[in-house]
């Protein structure tokens, strides 16, 4: 079985190492030895340490390598949309099996890859693209195919989970926690894709596509990052017995016409400390799946890093190599349901709203009236400081109100907050956070 490796960086280097160290076991599991036919990189002269591989295998001509007749399996660990898309479409159409960790490409244009796989009768596997080492996509696309998944809620970005966990543990603000994450090597020099939620949104699109048998792309995902989360928000969450996590949520729903829909979103949210995802700390990932017959399932582990990600890549390599030897193909993409994606405004959420108001008679009634006008039902109201003490904050006759709502459409909650911001009795709306997880 001859393998073309595209990319030899953090993940690709570990793929090479594991292929070398486990060659005998892998050959036994597959039923044939696995050999590297070539390795495509950007810089031939780059120092690759003591990588156990023949330097003559390296090339900068990735497309040429993909097209070679002696290549059976193409493993892509370069990343990005182009030129990766062109290489993979070429490989799939030619009937070569593809294993990729490229979540950005799958979320942007997974349909093109699946179409090319169908055209070429080839396998397309991508376990490493979501939540690194955690076996998650195979359970969604195989083990749970006899069930009906209703909701997937995940912590799928390690960098932001590290930052939020640090804020929760130490009371640090976002900037301070990001600095620590960068110093420890969790956050990249440019952390935008992580802290603004782009990475999690790509993973959310992939999860939703598999869970709901519907093509969902990154453009369908409502996305908010964690840059606006403050130390006061974290303290407020604690006062309520909650913690703040960047969640990816993919949920089935029904629209006003009674049609089944899906909603896919990424945003920070409070979850109760009793929720299984609340205890997922540091840079770990976890995904909580709810299915009609199976009930609740939780998948937990390392979502990034060279070796954990390479583990998932090699699991796929073994699967596609076995299929090739047996002359079979895995089940193709399942997108038959083709459910419409519901806009964020129609998503049902709960809100935690913290506001500073004038402390005088009638203010609470006026604030409650705004919620009522938008048909948003209030669950709890607390007056006092964020640390939970009773009474006013003592800032020149102002008080702090913390309001938690029942479930309502996101648009109604947003309109409520917008109207509150316009009231002269409301000094400022200091925090608005969604509340998830059955609090
Ligand atoms: P790196 O940046 O460490 O490695 C990228 C590799 O691709 C390098 O070897 C680079 O060559 C090569 N490369 C870049 N451009 C080209 C090109 N035009 N032609 C040929 N080779 C090229 O990335 P990672 O290993 O971290 O990530 C790879 C993929 O895995 C991405 O899709 C990422 O999203 C995904 N992934 C990564 C995880 C992680 O923890 N790192 C976790 C899960 C998924 P050179 O070495 O010469 O620079
Ligand atoms: N940047 C990602 C994270 C890497 O922090 O989880 C894994 O996709």
Automatic annotation (TrEMBL):
Q: What is its EC number?
A: 1.1.1.3
CDD domains noted in UniProt: ACT_HSDH-Hom (cd04881)
Keywords (alphabetical) are: Amino-acid biosynthesis, Methionine biosynthesis, NADP, Oxidoreductase, Sodium, Threonine biosynthesis
**What is its cofactor?**
a metal cation
Q: Tell me yes or no: is NADP among this UniProt entry's keywords.
A: yes
Record-annotated ACT domain positions: 352-434
Pathway where it operates:
Amino-acid biosynthesis; L-threonine biosynthesis; L-threonine from L-aspartate: step 3/5; Amino-acid biosynthesis; L-methionine biosynthesis via de novo pathway; L-homoserine from L-aspartate: step 3/3
Catalytic activity annotation: L-homoserine + NADP(+) = L-aspartate 4-semialdehyde + NADPH + H(+); L-homoserine + NAD(+) = L-aspartate 4-semialdehyde + NADH + H(+)
On the tree of life, the source organism's domain of life is: Bacteria
Q: Which PANTHER family match?
A: HOMOSERINE DEHYDROGENASE
Quote the function comment for this protein: Catalyzes the conversion of L-aspartate-beta-semialdehyde (L-Asa) to L-homoserine (L-Hse), the third step in the biosynthesis of threonine and methionine from aspartate.
Family indicated by similarity? Belongs to the homoserine dehydrogenase family.
This protein is called: Homoserine dehydrogenase
Record organism? Micromonospora globbae
């Amino acid at each position: 079985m001859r393998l073309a490796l595209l990319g030899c960086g953090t993940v690709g280097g570990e793929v090479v190492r594991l292929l070398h160290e486990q060659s005998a076991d892998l050959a036994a599991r597959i039923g044939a030895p696995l050999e590297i036919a070539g390795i495509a990189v950007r810089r031939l002269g780059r120092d690759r340490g003591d990588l156990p591989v023949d330097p003559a295998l390296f090339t900068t001509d990735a497309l040429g390598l993909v097209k070679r007749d002696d290549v059976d399996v193409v493993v892509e660990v370069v990343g990005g949309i182009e030129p990766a898309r062109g290489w993979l479409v070429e490989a799939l159409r030619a009937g070569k099996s593809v294993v990729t960790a490229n979540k950005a490409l799958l979320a942007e244009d997974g349909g093109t890859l699946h179409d090319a796989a169908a055209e070429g009768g080839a396998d397309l596997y991508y376990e490493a693209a979501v939540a690194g080492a955690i076996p998650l996509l195979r359970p969604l696309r195989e083990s749970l195919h006899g069930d009906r998944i209703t909701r997937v809620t995940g912590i799928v970005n390690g960098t932001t989970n590290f930052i939020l966990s640090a804020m929760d543990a130490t009371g640090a603000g976002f900037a301070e926690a990001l600095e620590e994450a960068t110093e420890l090597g969790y956050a990249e020099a440019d952390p935008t894709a992580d802290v603004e939620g782009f990475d999690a949104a790509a993973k959310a699109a992939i999860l939703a596509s598999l869970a709901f048998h519907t093509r969902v792309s990154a453009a369908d995902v409502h996305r908010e990052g964690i840059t606006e989360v403050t130390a006061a928000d974290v303290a407020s969450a604690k006062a309520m017995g909650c913690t703040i996590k960047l969640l990816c949520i993919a949920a089935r729903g029904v629209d006003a016409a009674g049609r089944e829909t899906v909603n896919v979103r990424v945003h920070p949210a409070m979850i109760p400390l009793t929720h299984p995802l609340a205890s997922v700390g540091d840079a770990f990932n976890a995904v909580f799946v709810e299915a009609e017959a199976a009930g609740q399932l939780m998948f937990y582990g390392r979502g990034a890093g060279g070796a954990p990600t390479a583990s998932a890549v090699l699991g796929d390599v073994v699967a596609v190599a076995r299929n090739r030897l047996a002359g079979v193909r895995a089940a193709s993409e399942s997108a038959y349901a083709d459910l419409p994606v519901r806009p964020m405004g129609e998503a049902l959420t709960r809100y935690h709203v913290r506001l500073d108001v004038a402390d005088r008679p009638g203010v609470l009634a006026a604030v409650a009236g705004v919620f009522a006008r938008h048909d948003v039902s209030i669950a709890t109201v607390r007056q006092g400081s964020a640390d939970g003490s009773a009474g006013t904050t003592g800032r020149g006759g102002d008080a702090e109100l913390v309001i938690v709502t029942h479930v309502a459409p996101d648009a109604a909650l947003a309109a409520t907050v917008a109207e509150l911001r316009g009231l002269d009795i409301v000094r400022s709306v200091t925090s608005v956070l969604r509340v998830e997880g059955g609090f």
